[in-house]
Structures are given as C-alpha cells and as structure tokens.
Design a protein that fits this description.
By secondary structure, this protein is mostly helical. The protein has one domain: Hypothetical protein af1432 (Orthogonal Bundle). It is 63% helix and 0% strand. It binds magnesium ion.
C-alpha cells in the first residue's frame, strides 16, 4: 500500500460498525468490508442486472457487475494518485449499485412510482438497506455490518426526509457536509465509467453512430488524435482506442484538479474534509465536456425508441408484479410473507428490487401465465 495522505480515511480510525466485532486480522477494516461485499448474494446478482440494456439482449453489454468492477478499477487508480485509501474506494465502488432494481433506470422509476404513497424507493438508500439489513449471512446480525465509512460512501444521495431516519449516515444530508474523499472519488469514478461504457455499448448496439458522436467535443478530440496517429484503423479498434484515451484523460484531469483543490484547502484530516466543499472535481472545461456527453447520451441513447420500448415493458412488468403482490400477499415466497405483517409495501418492494432482469421476467410468467409446466 502506498503512503496514506493525512486527509485519507485511515482504516484503524474508522468510526466503526453498528454491531461490535473484534478487529480483523491480516487485513484492514475496509478490506474486510470489500470481502464481505464480494461474498454477498446481492453482489452476485449484479451479473444479471443491467443499466441501459436488458440482460438478455446480448452478452457483450455491460451488466452492473462489470460496471461495478470498472468503477472500482478507475476509483483505485485515482485514489492511489491522490494518496487516498484504495480499499475503501474499492469497497464503496463494488457496493454502490447493490440496491438497484431489475431493468435499470426504468425499473427503478417504476418501483419508485409504485411506492409513492409508501415512503418511496431510492436506489442509493436501497443499496444501504441491502448491506445494513437485507443480506442474511451472519449468525449475530442482519446485513453485512460494514464500517461507517463504507456505508457513508454508499449513500450518495438521500432525501432530507429519509436522512432523518438514518442516524449517523444520514446526518451529513442534514448538516450539508461532505463524505470522505474516498466516497467522492467513487462517485466520480462511477460517472467516468458509465459515460464511457455507454458510448461503447451504444455504438456496439448500433443505437448511436460514430457520425453522431463526432458532434460531441470530448469524443471527437480523441477520435481525431487516434485517426491522425493510426490512419485507416478499423472501427472496432478506433472506438476502443478513443474510449481508452477518453477515460485516461478524464482520470488525469480529475486527479490534477483535485490535487490542486486539496493543496489549496490543506485539509489536515478526514474531519477537515467533511467540513470543506467537495475537493474531488474535474476542471471546469472537462466538467463542461462531460455534461455535453451526458446530454448526448440522454437524447440519443437513453431515449432511443428501442430503449423506450424496452423501458415501457420493464415498467409494466414491475408495476403489475407490485400490484399483484399487494393485492394478494399469499403469492409471495414464504420468507417475504413473514415480513408482510410489519410493512407489506416495503416487503414487496424489497422482493422486487432484489430480482435480476431474468428473474423478474420469469416471475412475471409464473404469476400471470398458466402453463402446463406449472409448479
Ligand atoms: Mg453506478
């Protein structure tokens, strides 16, 4: 491990876990958390959950599992450059999407809509719920009993109303203070990862084209460079070489700007970091370019009619499953039925949120379609 900066999250100074446990041996607190996340059920399910594309559409597209691995890789590279705690960034990155519903953004919007009168559904909060409560792996407690610093990083956003119910990790949304720099890094590594892999997946699926992307500054700059260096390169290599360079330049820019902000602000500890404005940032120029790329993706990929059709089907599936379980909780698997007495909508929401894309599709068949191979 490289030398930790004074403003990094030092594992031995963790604010601790909700349930007392003896300190880990042979690994630090954040490594233990990362290991717990990797061994969790929710983590394995990420393989069959998607962001933009539905899981069965092709083996080449990113799933939430490969997305999370890319976030961890990018996050660790940044952490190392800035003298931050890599294991913490890795743990937050691997856990950040654990609470996502099936069918990506569409599924999440649908579930949020279903839960409108029952406390709502926020995916960040659900990720925290997975690691705090829903995983059933330990004899002595629910959840994974992770350190405060990992839990704080997972809870990227949170409404004030929900923050009031969350105790220690909710407090910063009430005080308007910042999380650790490691959490800030994981957050922006997420952004770098998805913008770039959505370009890649979008091109591969032919929903967007190279021609269209030439109108996006950050892409066209790197594309021009690659074409000048390697005239006549085939499209596949051209795209990968361009994206590789885009990721690299974003990481370099983020590290340079953040190092500058940190040098100016001179935080002496993580406590200082929390009281300061965000210190992990892109330069203004690159921030603007990222925004342009995001807007391009929103208009041309996320709202492509073929994505819209898939999203509409996904939303219908989620909505109808939710209504069926609400009307007749007897349709739920037994372990979820046990929880319906305390809060039926939340039990249904947890059940649906935990589903993978293919599980939700199969469950829809099992709930609504009579087949000869019943039961
Ligand atoms: Mg993500």
């Amino acid at each position: 491990m490289h030398d930790l900066a004074p403003y990094a999250a030092h594992p031995e100074e963790t604010r601790g876990r909700q349930h007392f446990e003896s300190p880990p041996q042979g690994r630090n607190h954040f490594q233990r958390d990362r290991d717990r996340i990797i061994h969790s059920t929710a983590f394995r399910r990420l393989e069959y959950k998607t962001q933009v594309f539905v899981n069965h559409e092709g083996d080449l597209f990113r799933t939430r599992l490969t997305h999370s691995l890319e976030v961890a890789q990018i996050g660790r590279a940044i952490a190392r450059t800035l003298g931050l705690q890599e294991d913490l960034v890795e743990a937050i990155s691997l856990a950040h999407d654990l609470g996502h519903t099936p069918f990506g953004h569409a599924g999440q919007d649908a579930l949020n809509d279903c839960m409108r009168n029952h406390g709502g559904f926020e995916h960040n909060l659900q990720s925290l719920r997975v690691v705090d409560q829903l995983e059933q792996r330990y004899a002595e407690f629910n959840g994974l009993n992770l350190t405060f610093e990992v839990r704080e990083g997972i809870l990227k956003h949170c409404s004030v109303k929900n923050a009031r119910t969350l105790g220690d990790v909710g407090q910063r949304f009430l005080d308007r203070t910042q999380p650790s720099l490691e959490a800030q890094v994981a957050n922006l590594a997420d952004e770098i990862a998805y913008n770039n892999h959505d370009v890649d997946d979008g091109l591969r699926s032919r929903l967007i084209t190279l021609e269209q992307l030439k109108g996006v500054q950050i892409f066209s700059e790197h594309l021009d460079q690659v074409q000048k260096l390697y005239p006549g390169l085939n499209d596949r290599r051209l795209i990968h070489e361009t994206i590789r360079r885009m990721i690299n330049s974003l990481v370099m820019d983020l590290c340079a700007k953040s190092a500058e902000l940190i040098a100016d602000a001179k935080p002496a500890s993580i406590a200082d970091v929390r009281k300061m404005p965000p210190l992990i940032k892109f330069s203004a120029a690159v921030q603007q370019q990222q925004l342009e790329l995001k807007q391009f993706l929103r208009m041309n990929l996320y709202r492509h009619y073929r994505v819209n059709r898939m999203s509409a089907k996904a939303q219908r599936t989620i909505r109808e499953l939710f209504e069926a379980f609400m009307q007749d909780p007897g349709l739920l698997p037994e372990d979820f039925q046990l929880r319906t007495q305390s809060d039926l909508p939340r039990a249904v929401s947890d059940y649906i949120a935990g589903m993978t894309d293919r599980y939700a599709m199969k469950e829809y068949q099992r709930v609504f379609v009579i087949s000869e191979r019943e039961l």
